[in-house]
């Protein structure tokens, strides 16, 4: 049953990701990516990571993709690009295939069936996924977490400065 | 097998009850707004117009389903379905009483936020695929409005999660019942107010119904829709109102319980089944929705975004910090 579900999610993720990068209409490709994000959430659910699954949908599907859609609308990219293919040079295609092959092989060779470490499946089962992720994030990984927060703060301030300068120059 | 059958029956019952409620909420809305404006409201169909919603539904399903010639046909047709499905799915995680819940998720609250954030795609896509200026503007407005207010909604609920120590809606109610006041609306009054305002904006209801402001945008993203696809949007909006009302009842008003100090004074109230308390709280919130619609004028769009970003989000943060201090030192 689990294998069947995994197969379904994996196939949908791969096909929708492919459609997402190959559609000419930007809104259509964003929709395929939305489908991919939702199914990625399903994959997390299969791993008993319910918190991660919901956050995946809230953050990626709910916030970031809406922002992309908004940008597409605002820049009025409704006309489809006229070029028949995006990558012209044959070297580029070969590099693309090689990179894909590398990741596929890398994934296949580093695949482990059992996880070793302090966060075992029994521990997560006992105290719940949300609690485990919370305690790990705010005790063991507190410093990286804070740094991430600062990194995210920088573009926020940057956007504010750009907007304020534009207003001051009167070119808003 | 038998469990699956019971599950299907339960789901059907819940959906049936909610859809009946939706039908009669439209009736109640017209009656209450009518009274607020010194009119009678619908009176013709049945006694006091009681059969009016049924007549409306029959009428709307016999109308022609029109797709504009320049519309993106497929997206235009699935947009209302996206909205309705991702709104109805929320009903599965709402605990109606202590032991009636369709799916007892550990992350029920996040589930509701997640499906709310997906259902907004339906509105944006409806606006885009109609290929009409009014629809498109309505869709854009809806996108920025829901994006802004989702943060405020999440912040106000974060206070509740922090106080209860759980994302499970049933645990939140139980934790709430065990506090001295019995409801989170009193110690977290700032969060409660933020939640109520953000809930109005999230469901695109007056005074924040700018995506469908009829004085500027004809009907916003609904302009090109007709017949049952229009009805699906309509249905989704009212179901979303019920979801928000239930969420408010569960997270801030104690769900199916009433505060202990009331049952200490009046012990016979313990005998009342929990579903009645839950229903009373939900109905009160729905009445508030209608009352506000009859009373307040619509905001301008810049005002709406200013309220969201400059008032509600800072207030939500203040509430979160206050709750953290309360939790730590009391």
Automatic annotation (TrEMBL), chain A:
Q: What is its EC number?
A: 7.1.1.-
The record's annotation in Gene3D superfamilies points to: NADH-ubiquinone/plastoquinone oxidoreductase chain 6, subunit NuoJ
Q: Which reaction does it catalyse?
A: a quinone + NADH + 5 H(+)(in) = a quinol + NAD(+) + 4 H(+)(out)
Which residue ranges traverse the bilayer? 6-22, 29-47, 53-74, 94-111, 141-164
What InterPro entries does UniProt report for this protein, alphabetically? NADH_UbQ/plastoQ_OxRdtase_su6, Nuo/plastoQ_OxRdtase_6_NuoJ
Compartments in which it is found: Cell membrane
Q: Does the keyword Magnesium apply?
A: no
Q: Which GO terms describe its molecular function?
A: NADH dehydrogenase (ubiquinone) activity; quinone binding
* Domain of life where this protein originates: Bacteria
What are the protein's UniProt keywords? Answer: Cell membrane, Membrane, NAD, Quinone, Transmembrane, Transmembrane helix
Mind naming one GO cellular-component term on file for this protein? plasma membrane
- Chief location bin: membrane
Membrane topology per record: Multi-pass membrane protein
What does the function comment of this entry state? NDH-1 shuttles electrons from NADH, via FMN and iron-sulfur (Fe-S) centers, to quinones in the respiratory chain. Couples the redox reaction to proton translocation (for every two electrons transferred, four hydrogen ions are translocated across the cytoplasmic membrane), and thus conserves the redox energy in a proton gradient.
Q: Which family does it belong to?
A: Belongs to the complex I subunit 6 family.
- PANTHER family registered for this protein in UniProt: NADH-UBIQUINONE OXIDOREDUCTASE CHAIN 6
Q: Protein name, please?
A: NADH-quinone oxidoreductase subunit J
Q: Which organism is it from?
A: Thermodesulfovibrio yellowstonii
Its taxonomic path starts at: Bacteria, Pseudomonadati, Nitrospirota, Thermodesulfovibrionia, Thermodesulfovibrionales
TrEMBL record, chain B:
Q: Which UniProt keywords apply?
A: Cell membrane, Membrane, NAD, Quinone, Translocase, Transmembrane, Transmembrane helix, Ubiquinone
What kind of membrane protein is this, topologically? Multi-pass membrane protein
Catalyses: a quinone + NADH + 5 H(+)(in) = a quinol + NAD(+) + 4 H(+)(out)
GO CC entries: plasma membrane
- Per UniProt, the enzyme's principal EC class comes to translocase
Q: Mind listing the GO molecular function terms for this protein? A: NADH dehydrogenase activity; oxidoreductase activity, acting on NAD(P)H, quinone or similar compound as acceptor; quinone binding
* Known role: NDH-1 shuttles electrons from NADH, via FMN and iron-sulfur (Fe-S) centers, to quinones in the respiratory chain. The immediate electron acceptor for the enzyme in this species is believed to be ubiquinone. Couples the redox reaction to proton translocation (for every two electrons transferred, four hydrogen ions are translocated across the cytoplasmic membrane), and thus conserves the redox energy in a proton gradient. This subunit may bind ubiquinone.
Q: How does it assemble?
A: NDH-1 is composed of 14 different subunits. Subunits NuoA, H, J, K, L, M, N constitute the membrane sector of the complex.
Q: Which HAMAP family match?
A: NDH1_NuoH
Its family?
Belongs to the complex I subunit 1 family.
Q: What is this protein called?
A: NADH-quinone oxidoreductase subunit H
